[in-house]
Each structure stands twice: as structure tokens, then as C-alpha cells.
């Protein structure tokens, strides 16, 4: 019914493996069989992808797929010690790659300690959930989303959210946005919000 999406590069392979194991531990065996695991990467070696695939199979996930992607130039705001280009791969998940009605994006260094699927039950078709970043709560006042406040001034001091943290992947979701059409991030005002997609 849903897929977990992770963006993993060579620097985050070990944390990514821990995240996959934690995701498996958060689900019952029957729930894992119906769950897909999708990984986007810039630079993982084929052996690393095989390792992830074997872990996903051994943990009991229903399917696994990995793909190499490069984020669109318009989605890149910074490449620093805090934010790498891999961070922006989260915007490159497409329905054709996910092949599930829901995608739950999980950072590759997340220790999952509970059921992440619960917010899906409150979302309707065409809605995207967003989770507020508790460590970087305001756009332009922290290292999260560098360049966002300058690019979209109306977001300055608004909450920092991960707009694709959980939610249905709309069937008309573009495989990639045009270079000139820079998307504007969600402006959530609570710890979990929904935004209607076009």
C-alpha cells in the first residue's frame, strides 16, 4: 500500500542501513510484506545497492528498488557540511518509481521508534503531509534550507517543514519539474499539516 523512500549516499550508507532495520522493526511482519522500500542515490556503488537489497529482503519488505538520480538544478540551494546534494533527491521520487499510492520519506539518519504510517489514515487523495523540523524551526534562522529565505522571502521566519514526509503520491505528479518552474515549499503552521496538491 505504501513505500518508504530514502536518499542515501556513500557518507550515509551505515546510518541508512540502521534506518532500514529500524523501519522493519517498527512494522509487523505482515505489514512489511505489503511495504516497498525505495532508495535514491547519487553515488552508491553497485555492491552497496546489493547490500541494501539483501537487507530489505531479509527484513521482509515486499519490494525494493534503487535508482541513481541527480537533483534538478532549481531544487539545489546549497551544498555544505550540513546540507548535501543528496538532501535534494527527496524531490525526485516519482509515481513510476514509487509504484505505490503513498510515499513516506524518511531521512537516512533517522532512528524510527514507532509506526510512521499513522498519519496516512488522515490524508485524503491529493494531500501531502508535512512534519515540522524541531531542530530548525524557522526558515532563514537556522542552517536548514539554506537559501530558501532569499529565494522565497514570504517564507522567512515561517516553520521549516519537510513537505514530502508522508502522503499520497498524486497520480499526476510530474516526473521532473521544468527548470524555470521553481517550486515553493509548503508553509505549515502546525507540527503536522496537509497541503492540497494541484
In short:
By secondary structure, the protein is α/β, with parallel strands linked by helices. The chain has helices at residues 13-26, 29-33, 46-59, 95-98, 148-151; strands at residues 2-7, 35-41, 63-68, 102-105, 127-132, 161-168, 192-196.
Describe this structure in words.
The protein has 198 residues and is an alpha/beta fold. Helices cover 21% and strands 21% of the residues. It contains five helices and seven strands; from the N terminus they run βααβαβαββαββ. It has helices spanning 13-26, 29-33, 46-59, 95-98, 148-151, and strands at residues 2-7, 35-41, 63-68, 102-105, 127-132, 161-168, 192-196. It has a seven-stranded mixed sheet. Helix 1 (13-26) packs parallel to helix 3. The longest helix is centred in the N-terminal third of the chain and has 14 residues, at 13-26. The chain is globular and about 45 Å long. The protein starts with a strand and ends with a strand.
Amino acid at each position: 500500500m505504501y513505500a518508504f523512500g530514502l536518499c542515501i549516499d556513500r557518507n550515509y550508507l551505515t546510518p541508512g542501513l540502521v534506518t532500514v532495520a529500524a523501519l522493519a522493526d517498527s512494522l509487523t511482519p505482515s505489514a512489511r510484506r505489503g511495504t516497498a522500500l525505495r532508495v535514491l542515490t547519487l553515488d552508491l556503488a553497485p555492491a552497496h545497492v546489493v547490500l541494501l537489497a539483501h537487507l530489505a529482503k531479509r527484513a521482509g519488505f515486499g519490494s525494493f528498488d534503487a535508482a541513481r538520480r541527480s537533483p534538478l538544478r532549481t531544487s539545489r540551494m546549497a551544498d555544505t557540511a550540513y546540507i548535501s546534494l543528496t538532501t535534494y533527491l527527496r524531490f525526485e521520487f516519482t509515481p513510476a518509481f514509487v509504484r505505490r499510492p503513498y510515499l513516506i520519506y524518511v531521512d537516512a539518519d533517522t532512528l524510527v521508534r514507532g509506526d510512521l504510517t499513522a498519519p496516512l489514515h488522515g490524508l485524503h487523495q491529493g494531500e501531502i503531509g508535512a512534519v515540522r523540523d524541531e531542530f530548525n524551526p524557522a526558515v532563514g534562522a537556522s542552517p536548514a534550507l539554506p537559501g530558501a529565505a532569499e529565494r522565497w522571502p514570504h517564507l522567512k521566519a515561517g516553520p521549516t517543514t519537510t513537505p514530502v514526509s508522508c502522503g499520497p503520491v498524486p497520480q499526476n505528479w510530474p516526473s521532473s519539474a521544468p527548470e524555470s518552474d521553481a517550486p515553493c515549499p509548503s508553509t505549515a503552521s502546525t507540527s503536522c499539516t496537509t497541503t492540497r496538491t494541484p
